TrEMBL record:
This is 1-acyl-sn-glycerol-3-phosphate acyltransferase. Pathway: Lipid metabolism. GO terms for molecular function: 1-acylglycerol-3-phosphate O-acyltransferase activity. One of its GO terms (biological process) is phosphatidic acid biosynthetic process. It holds the Pfam family Acyltransferase. Residues 79-193 form the Phospholipid/glycerol acyltransferase domain. Keywords: Acyltransferase, Membrane, Transferase, Transmembrane, Transmembrane helix. The chain crosses the membrane at residues 12-33. SMART domains: PlsC.
Amino acid sequence: MKLLFKPLRVVYLIYAAIVFLGIMFLILPFIFLASFLGRVKGGNIVFYFLRFWSHTWFPAVGIMVKRIYEWDRKDKTPYLYVVNHCSYLDAALAVQVMRLPFRPLGKIEMQKIPFFGFIYKQSVVPVDRSDAKARSRSVREMIAVLKHGISILIFPEGTTNSTNKILQPFHNGAFRIAIETQTPIQPVLYLDNRKRLPSGGLKLNPGRCRVVYLPPVPVTGLTMEDLPALKQQVFEIMEGELKARI
């Protein structure tokens, strides 16, 4: 039976890749035109094309997205989204399920990928973790983005979690920015992405992807002295919810 499914899996992966690239090349000219409209307006337009990409690709490969809301958001103020990072599928899902406008923080190395790198450059706040000055520029850009009413998405674990732990320790960056800008933090959970696309392999699996939006954590009045406690608070909230739901 395994021998029968192996060629079917290869065909499925090839099909998923062709659809992924096909949609990418379809929207690439429109993203190129939007890039002339600036980082804010043009970037916001880019995300509508990326959302089309995600809304098309996920059902085309048999992955159904389910949103679970633990709070009723009615305001349009920007938030700092913190999301668990367990799969390379996370970024593709984010452009479908996060409220627009928003910008993710992303690794600058991804800009080197042909064609995709151009789209990536237009849609993220890039960060070069090997360069202190570059990290400072990224922080300034995130603060500027928030002032334009655009939310920020950060994976506080810093990298894809390939361990057997439900969460890796959080870095300080997201919580420092939240306190500096007095922007509320909204924890978001991706429950099934590791099952759909395990890290470190090419084993895409059809099925469901559940996204849980947890109540925001206010930061009003907090100072940098409160950063460790805030980071621990958000970590415990997300870890507890993940343990209860996975």
